[in-house]
Amino acid sequence: MKAPLADRMRPSTLDDVVGQPHLLGDGKALRRIIESNDIPNLIFYGPSGVGKTTIARIIAERTDMRLHKLNGTNASTADIKAVVEETQTLAGAGGILLYLDEIQYFNKKQQQTLLEHIENGDITLIASTTENPYFYVYSAILSRSTVFEFKAVEPDDVKPAIERGFAFLEKENGCQITVEDGVVAHIASACGGDVRKALNAVELCALTAAPNKDGSRTVSLDLATQLAQKNALRYDRAGDEHYDVISAYQKSMRGSDPDAALHYLARLLEAGDLPSACRRLLVCASEDVGLAYPQILPIVKAAVDMALQLGMPEARIPLADAVVLVATAPKSNSVYCGINQAMRDVQAGKAGPIPRQLQNKHFDGEDQEKKGQFYLYPHDFPHHYTKQQYLPDNLKDTTYYVPGDNKNEAAFADYWKKIKGK
Known about the structure:
Low-confidence stretches: none
Largest sheet: 5 strands, parallel
Structural class: alpha/beta
């Protein structure tokens, strides 16, 4: 079976790698490390198809160390031990370079097996991962490694790889391939920054293009649109992208940017993550709008209920209504801050006995020196208010809620200042 096009034409030099100018540009740290041939332990972090494996292979080809490749999805402890054992043989005398792809699938014990040999220099580790290494890589390995973050490749940077892909196939198959205007740009845009996906689309286009009478093939824009019609949405409900999208979604609503909020809502819905879209919307209405517009809570709850009842694709409509409402509403986190401080005090043990007048007692025991509960019923007093202590003695002067500067809370605050005589 023929290897994928991305593997058959994998770059062999740094200059052929597309994208990652922040790592591989002239004078950039990773390029200087590679060109020095003095390779430390490295961890490459970033999405699929952006060059992590390619760079690791280029490094391996530049060194005289013995190369081993393992993949975290299928490597076992026995595979690790075999690599470690080779450090004691003649083959490993010059050092061993271990390229460990998808290191996030290695458990802590497997990673610890490598630690001693990484530390003493017998093994140089180059690991790659699509997940945040600070969550998935054992801290002792992290402390002995340098982390480089790879980014999704911009469409303009993907275009040269696509053009090389068509040229490679033309030469490989001995068949002229004509590419219509717009094909390269469409594939570059549709691949979502994944060069491997773009080259897969190139190969598929070349294979399915109908032959002309002279044996050549023409890749039309219509064909490219059919084969690369959906943008590669990077989203994993258990991975970094999930948390990045929902974080951007809520922060856009909090930041009063309805356009960005709709964009991230669309990404959540396109990924089929309706529950996260609804949950974050409810949270944002309470946390970030709150008492600045208290009527928003039942409105957003009704929109979420409607969306869950309708299901997709119609669910997008009430959710979009609510997202724009939250994004454009006045903001206040006064209650959010208040309950957080109250929770911190309770968790720190700042509780204390409940004041006698608030306790649910209907009689006094013999041990009670001063008989009676002494609770003052606020509705028996003018304006339904009378001064009495509600917090425990050790917290009686604590303030948790500070009114926001929006008109609703300002009006409430002015009213109670007047009633309470402050």
